[in-house]
Records
---
Amino acid sequence: MDIQQNITLFQELLCCGGDIYTWCYDIQGSLLCSNCPEEALFETAFSLLGCKDRVLGLAREKSLPQAVGTSFGLIWGVDFVCRGGVPELIYVIGPVFSHNVSLRDMENGLREYAGQELGLARKRQFLDAYKKIPVVQNILFTRYLLMLHYCITGEKLDASDTCLEQSFSDAAPPDIKRDRHRVWMSECALLDMVRNGDLNYKEVLSDSLLISTGVPVRGRDPLRQAKTSVIVFSSIVCRAAIEGGMSPEEAYSLGDAYIQSAENASTYDEIRSVPMLMYDDFVRRVYKAKQRQKLSSPVAQCRDYIEMHLDEKIRAADLAELVGYTEYYLTRKFKEETGFCVSDYVKYAKIGRAKVLLRSTDISVQELSEQLSFSSRNYFTRVFSGIVGCTPMEYRENPHPR
């Protein structure tokens, strides 16, 4: 894999969206190269604002792609090249602003972080240069990080695999602020996965992170904002789990434990994994609660196989072979216990997944039909309409979840 060739192409693509620069450091923090024309100025800011030390700390932890930055919204993205599990190189993109920042906020931020260390001349240079630093939406910056990771490692990650240290304010561009409907639809999809105990939640969770990263409260304390987001997220997930069959006593106790864990965090590193762990924990507990329904072990095994293989063609004969029954005996027993014949159960499960993806992603109907292994788009639309009562496109456009 030619990393340098990939990085060169990445730099060219990145600069198409504004003056966003790429930096490469060794593991001791020495700058090896960059494409920034004001390299010395921004390198000084990177160090004096404390971001460089945090990046070196993350390298020791062998972390995934990160975004690090300041409370006034200046951020850098960082990723690592490892050999044998040991980080060798550090790649950085930035700086960018996560939102529009006034000159006064910039001056106050430099005073808070760098004090007199920046020097009057450097401070003036930086305040002159700050107008050239682009504002990049959280969604887009996350995608840049995913692209960087692919360029230097060849590995494709989801948005849920990145960790955004810097909390983003509510000063988003107007076109993003108006898209509350999409955020709500994504939230509905996430909560449906909890209610259903659906272990195949990663794609939906990843897509939701590209739409919203939490409660957009304005403040100078990123850690407080992260805690607020965890508290809100835990609360709504807890209620969805109760609706999915988890007992209120267990759900509220679990939710309180995760909220307390978030409140006890003194650094962002301590809190960043809490929402993912919490969500996975609730989904798995609802899944187990549903498993406790009165299904025989073979039928429960077939049901679980169906839920985990919705992207495949599933036949009763294959399920019968899986559990060691004849096809005739399995189909009769499956209908007795679930109320559905195998083919109908598979269709309902696939359409249930389709509804989630239609609400939470931009996937086309054609791609969705292929992803769920329907023989054609027309057949998928016919099955969907028969079960839901409208076409997939009508369902996507309908603001009321079904």
---
Amino acid sequence: MVTKDIICITCPQGCIIKVTGDPAKGEIASCEGFKCKRGKVYAENEFIRPLRILTSSVKTSGAAVPLVAVRTSAPIPKEMQMEAMEEVKKITVSGKLVPGDVIVKNFMGTGADLVASGRLD
């Protein structure tokens, strides 16, 4: 059994939630300290499989600026972040981009797209 204190970020209260269980098996034995249902769901998800939005920038070609901001359209597994950054380093974009334009569909098989969050004229 593993016990982990997780600070909830779903609202300004910042509850410290104590979760006990076996994250490798996806089992939760107890969850204490949350003040709302969203906090409980957040802590359980964070304990079993933490997810994060990846934000970065990619190189441009033939543009006035050397980089354009990008992000994933949905959270991806936290353990993939470093590998994902290595993939982002390989990407170069050109042409016109507006926020929301898809740069890589289903980025690294995560189901999330890598999209522009900046503008490229």
---
Amino acid sequence: MASKTKEPNEQNGTSKPLNVLVVDDEPAHAEVVAASLERINAVCVVAYSEKEALELIKRRFFDVVVSDLMLETNESGLQILKTTKRESPDTEVVLMTASSGVETAVEAMLEGAFNYLQKPLDLKQLRSIVQKAGDASKLRQDNQQLKARLDEKFGFDGVIGSSEAMLKAIERLKRIAPTDAAVLILGDTGTGKELFAQALHHNSPRKSKPFVALNCAALSENLLESELFGHVKGAFTDATSDRVGKFEYADGGTIFLDEVGDMPLSTQVKLLRTLESHEIMPVGSNKVIKVNVRLVSATNRNLEDAVEQGTFRRDLYHRLKVVTLRLPSLVERRTDVPILLDHFMKIFAKKYNKTIKGVSTIARRKLLAYDWPGNVRQLRNFAESMVVVDIDGFIDADDLPEEIIDLEPGDLTPEEQEQEQEESVGVVTNATSAKSAPVLVPSSPEQERSLKPFVGMSLDALERLFIQETLRATGGNREETARILGVGERTLYRRIKQFSEENDRNVQHDQ
């Protein structure tokens, strides 16, 4: 007998319904159980055999499985329990049986059953237990979603990219994160060195302790030493009170020193001493403080050249580069531009309370053609700029920053090649509009004859003709013309301007 889905009654409220699988080889009993569970806002799928139940469990998710213990065999219910826990750990299982054997009940609980009910069922008790099982399942799912959100912000998932260069960097990141080894991150400005440092920390045993970042190039020599190691009151003119340094504050955690190649030589000596002895001495103090900190440093300079030039200590360089992690520039991972762009667009659309429906193919191609001297940081800034200046919910070429707007478009990605085909008449600037635009498919000799005059015309000429005739039909109303053609008003204005400029050039040529 086929499985059957029973929808919850309308009076059960507006809370999210429980997805429940009821398994029983007695159809009448299964229907009673399902009907009873509808009263607690459950959507029930009924299966009448072990095989059918196992197929459903492998194919879809249930918050709760309520199964008879004995179906075809005495072990049927236990097999359903074991399979459920293996395939869907967040699902809770409630078993029903006419047997009162304590041994079977104990085995079921050891295998992870949420509860064990005896037949004949007390339907009120059944509803109460299934509701509690559903609450436990949903709490576990919520915890998983929270963890996923944290991972997206701080974990490997927060490091966005699918290019080969980025995947190699992420794989190396995964290998070194669980260790305590010092890491030197190499990469151009704006490649995301601090993001990788955060991911290292939050995927390490130190993740519950502080992560402290400091840019070595942003401070003078005296201030940098004070920031790193702290100072005591009166150590220098402006030292009006004791100050805890970054190393002491980050004790047990991770300290990230960005632009470490710009650190003065005198501070390099003290940093080396700290790494060797695991001790610091605040400025103006004779007190030694023990610290346990993992050091992650980063630079966009060639430290080997700096060592040869005498501006960076060789011994410190080798201390910092126990493990190196090189981050690719955005040009080296150009295929990640669309992914990063969409990610940043979502962030800034939410920040500025805007709806961004998409990015035109021409805008994406121009972005792909850009060389990105500022790397991911520059792309993020450009994404914010485009969201801010956009007025119609669709990012087009005229929303691009000045650095990009006049670029020749780059090559299409495979996805954009498919979209380009949908935009063959040139006036449709996004996939949604293309799919919703009407397509003329001749279905009669009369229609075929009406299309004959257009056969042999170029697509550019057809586009010009359709715009011209639609403008004539609307009495020159550009807003209405854009609506009929399924394009943005600005796109229509640009095409009209382009046609006008072409006409002017042709007139000048003829003269």
